[in-house]
Amino acid sequence: EIVLTQSPGTLSLSPGERATLSCWASQSVSSSSLAWYQQKPGQAPRLLIYGASNRATGIPDRFSGSGSGTDFTLTISRLEPEDFAVYFCQQYGSSITFGQGARLEI
Amino acid sequence: EVQLVESGGGLVQPGGSLRLSCAASGFTFSSYGMNWVRQAPGKGLEWVSYISSGSTSIYYADSVEGRFTISRDNAKNSLYLLMNSLRGEDTAVYYCARGLMGRFTPNWFDPWGQGTLVTVSS
Fold first, then answer.
1. Which residues of chain A, if any, have pLDDT below 50?
2. Which candidate in A29, A96, A100, A103 is best for mutational testing of the B interface (most B CBs within 10 A)?
3. How many Cα neighbours within 13 Å face the side chain of B14?
4. pLDDT of B89 above 90
5. pLDDT > 90 in chain B, percent
6. Which letter, b or e, does each residue of A38-67 get, where b requires 16 or more Cβ atoms within 10 Å of its Cβ?
7. For B45, which of A33, A43, A88 is closest by C-beta distance?
8. Percent of chain A whose predicted confidence (pLDDT) is above 70
9. Residue B102: predicted pLDDT
């Protein structure tokens, strides 16, 4: 099973700042088969990024994904108040596993 | 608008059974693979099961293999999860999530339903 580890566990930033969230895989994730989700309290997760770097429909361009192999990154270029949430990475190259989540707080 | 609405959650005793449903609308349900993903209270996400558009490919997480059964009725635009031999660690919000069209394995999930809470307790 591919284990995904997200860091940092909690990131404290202010609106307007840049956020960088990391997702490390215990084995290489084939074909950059990695997605990112945002979850707000009491809501279902929302797809942000698939294929490591492709934005999902309707996702603002301040969200970007990068990486390959075992190291992946979600970057939010300029934080808006609505971006403060929990973010999960997920790999689908070998079965399905999720990272433990990373909280982005004001 | 694509919508997924889960139902069927509730309180069940350990060892009991429960059947979850997911009603889909706003897209051609019969063309897409579908998934169940769960989230224990205050915890992370765990993929549970996948079924391809024509029910020819089915996969389960090891934690539920042999106890849970995924199925779908394309005529009714509905997805199901029959859960048997329930345990305390199955307590979670269960989400229905759409997969991809034309694939036979789970990939990313978009969109997700609002979830239904299953509580396993005596």
1. none
2. A96
3. 5
4. yes
5. 95
6. bbeeeebbbbbbbebbebbeebeeebbbeb
7. A88
8. 100
9. 82
3-state SS string over B52-116?
CCCCCCEEECCCCCCCEEEEEEHHHCEEEEEECCCCHHHCEEEEEEEEEECCCCCCCCCCECCCE
Min distance A6 CA to chain B CA atoms (Å): 12
Q: Is the pLDDT of residue B71 over 90?
A: yes
Flag if A44 and B106 touch (Cβ within 8 Å): no
Binding-site residues on chain B for chain A (CB distance < 8 A): 44-47, 50, 59, 61, 95, 105-115
CA distance B100 to A50: 12
